[in-house]
C-alpha cells in the first residue's frame, strides 16, 4: 500500500497577509520554461496584475518578469487588502490565460513569499529584484530591462523610499 504524502502547509497563517503590509512573492514557471520573453505574454500578464491589485486593494511597488519567473512586491492599501489572495488570483488567472495560448504552460504549484517586516529595508529588496536581469546577463543596467516597474505608485518614489515608511 502506498503512503499518502501530506502536502506541506504554508508557513504562515493567511491572516498575516492582510492589511497595510508589504510582501514579496516569486512565482516560477514549472520546469523553468522561458515564457516571459514574449512581450505579448508579459503585457497580458501585466493587464491581469493591474486588475488583481485593484480588486484586492493593493499596489505593486515592484514587479519584474524574468524569462521563467515573476517577482512581485505588493503593498496593501486598506485594512481589508489581501496580498495572499492577490498573488493567488494572479497565479490562477495568468495560468488560465497562458494555458490557452501555450498548451504546455504550467506554474509551479506554489510560490515563494516573504512578508517585509517594518525593520527591513523594502527599497533594498526592490533594488535586488531589479538587479536580477543584470545578474542573469539580460541587460547591462537594470534601468534598461523592459519588463519591470511599479503599479499604483511612481517607481521613483519607491526607489527613493517615499510612501513605504
Topology:
Elements: E1 22-28, H1 39-55, E2 58-66, E3 69-76, H2 83-101, E4 112-116, H3 122-130, H4 132-135, E5 148-151, H5 155-159
Antiparallel strand pairs: 1-3, 1-4, 2-3, 2-5
Describe this structure in words.
The chain is of the alpha+beta class. It has one domain: Alpha-Beta Plaits. Helices cover 33% and strands 20% of the residues. The chain contains 5 helices and 5 strands. The protein has a 5-stranded antiparallel β-sheet with strand order 4-1-3-2-5, with helices on both faces. A hairpin with a 2-residue loop joins strand 2 and strand 3. The longest helix is centred in the middle third of the chain and has 19 residues. The mean pLDDT is 89.
Keywords:
165 residues; 5 helices; alpha+beta; Alpha-Beta Plaits; five-stranded antiparallel β-sheet
Specify the structural class.
alpha+beta
- Helical residue percent band: 25-40%
Broad shape: globular
End-to-end distance, in Å?
Answer: 55 Å
- The succession of helices and strands, N to C, reads EHEEHEHHEH
CATH superfamily: Transposase IS200-like
Q: Estimate what percentage of residues fall within beta strands.
A: 15-25%
Count the E strands: 5
Please give the oligomerization state of what you see: single chain
Main sheet attributes: strand count, strand direction, barrel closure: 5 strands, antiparallel
Q: What is the topology, as strand order, of the major beta sheet?
A: 4-1-3-2-5
- Count the helices. How many? 5
Question: From the coordinates shown, what is the CATH architecture?
Answer: 2-Layer Sandwich
- Can you give the mean pLDDT? 89
